[in-house]
Write a structure and sequence with these properties.
Length: 74
């Protein structure tokens, strides 16, 4: 992977998906780990899907990599 850059994966949005930010720049709204990996690849950060959960480069806000849907209220 190129240089270390802060990666933030925000809480799921009300409509689903999670905003991905690298170095303060929003890369897009990821709906799963594959989307996240593709955004990172386009930003020059090579990472395998199985690496994202434990990567020290990723700051998972609120919940981990297994939550991408909006929280439903009953």
């Amino acid at each position: 992977m190129a240089g270390k850059r802060p990666i933030i994966v925000h809480l799921p949005s009300p409509t689903g998906g999670r905003r991905v930010r690298v170095d303060g720049e929003i890369l897009g709204l990821a709906h799963n780990v594959r989307d996240l990996v593709e955004f990172l690849r386009r930003a020059g950060l090579e990472m395998e899907p199985e690496e994202v959960a434990d990567s020290p480069l990723i700051d998972w806000r609120g919940v981990g990599p297994d939550r991408w849907e909006a929280e439903t209220r009953t």
